[in-house]
Structure formats: structure tokens, C-alpha cells
């Protein structure tokens, strides 16, 4: 490895022990992203990069890239790379769709009526929102009440 490419470690204290952590420049961070993209292809996803960077001295964690550049997309754009496209799932389903889906869960065999029960049920279904997506649209109690009223 070329010595000037390796980040200089700095020492910080974590739980009373000295821990050496690399001190990356912006250029080194972007070079790491470019190296990952050259190997993995584009668009470069956060998850693919995270798996790639583990155990490599010249690559920082995705969390550091996001802190330094404001977002994953911002880091990729700063490196001249395309980032994975995101799409909002919270408006993929209409309010009526959500109420029908919640009603279908509540009517399903073995349904407990709990949010955890919905989340587990949703994982086994096709084309229904996850529990996290559902919560973006309102509280479980309110969605459940409205679904039962229909």
C-alpha cells in the first residue's frame, strides 16, 4: 500500500482505552468511494459499499461519509458517482389502500391486532407496506380504528 494513501491514525479515548482511528481527508474519503465503485459498479449503494469497506485501511465507514458530505447521495455526487435512486414508498398506497390492507391483516387467521403482528404479517405478503412505512402515515391505533370502521 502506498504510504501517502493511508490515513494518519489519531488516538481517542473510548471507555478508558486508547483507540487508534484513521483521520481521513475529504480526498481520501472520495478516493475510497471511487475505488469501491470501480470494483462494484454503479450505482453504488450504501449497503454494498459498507460490505466492501470492512477490513480495508483506505476506506471509511458509510456513517463517516454521510457525516462529512451530508448524505450518501452527497458523498457519491462529490466523488462523481451515481448513487442508488430512492423512491418514496409512503405515497405508493392511497389512504383507502392502507385501510384495506390493515383490514385484511385484522381479518387474517391468527392476527393478533398488534403492530408487531402486522409487521410480521406484512413480511409474508406481497405488495403491502412494511410496518415502518405504515407508521409514516399515522399511528397504528388510528389506522386500526379507521380500518375497523370501514
Overall description:
- A hairpin with a 2-residue loop joins strand 1 (8-14) and strand 2 (17-23).
- The longest helix has 15 residues, at 26-40.
- The protein has eight helices and two strands, in the order E-E-H-H-H-H-H-H-H-H.
- It is mostly helical.
- A two-stranded antiparallel ribbon has the order 1-2.
- The model is unreliable at 1-6 (pLDDT under 50).
- It has two domains: 3-78, no CATH class; 95-149.
List the defining traits of the structure above:
elongated; 8 helices; mainly alpha; 50% helix; single chain; 150 residues
Number of strands: 2
- Mean pLDDT metric: 82
- What ranges have pLDDT less than 50 throughout 5 or more consecutive residues? 1-6
* SS summary, helix count: 8
Order of helices and strands: EEHHHHHHHH
| Number of separate domains | 2
Proportion of strand residues: 5-15%
- Side by side, the strands of the main sheet go 1-2
* Rg over alpha carbons: 22 Å
Q: Helical amount among residues, as a percent range? A: 40-55%
Please summarize the sheet with the most strands.
2 strands, antiparallel
What would you call the structural class? mainly alpha
Shape descriptor reads elongated
Compute the separation of the termini in Å: 65 Å
Summarize the structure.
With 150 residues, the protein is mainly alpha-helical. It has 8 helices and 2 strands. It has 2 domains: 3-78, no CATH class; 95-149.
What's the topology here?
Blueprint: E1 8-14, E2 17-23, H1 26-40, H2 46-53, H3 62-69, H4 72-78, H5 95-107, H6 115-123, H7 131-135, H8 140-149
Helix pairs in contact: 1-2, 3-4, 5-8
Amino acid at each position: 500500500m502506498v504510504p501517502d494513501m493511508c490515513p494518519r491514525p489519531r488516538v481517542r479515548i473510548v471507555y478508558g482505552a486508547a483507540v487508534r482511528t484513521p483521520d481521513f481527508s475529504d480526498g481520501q474519503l472520495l478516493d475510497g468511494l471511487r475505488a469501491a465503485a470501480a470494483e462494484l459498479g454503479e450505482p453504488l449503494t450504501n449497503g454494498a459499499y459498507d460490505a466492501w469497506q470492512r477490513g480495508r485501511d483506505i476506506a471509511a465507514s458509510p456513517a463517516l461519509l454521510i457525516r462529512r458530505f451530508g448524505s450518501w447521495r452527497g458523498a457519491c455526487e462529490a466523488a462523481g458517482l451515481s448513487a442508488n435512486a430512492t423512491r418514496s414508498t409512503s405515497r405508493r398506497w392511497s389512504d383507502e389502500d392502507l385501510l384495506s390492507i390493515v383490514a385484511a391483516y385484522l381479518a387474517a387467521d391468527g392476527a393478533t391486532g398488534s403492530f408487531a403482528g402486522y409487521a410480521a404479517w406484512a413480511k409474508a405478503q406481497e405488495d403491502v407496506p412494511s410496518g415502518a412505512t405504515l407508521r409514516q402515515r399515522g399511528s397504528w391505533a388510528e389506522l386500526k380504528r379507521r380500518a375497523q370502521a370501514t
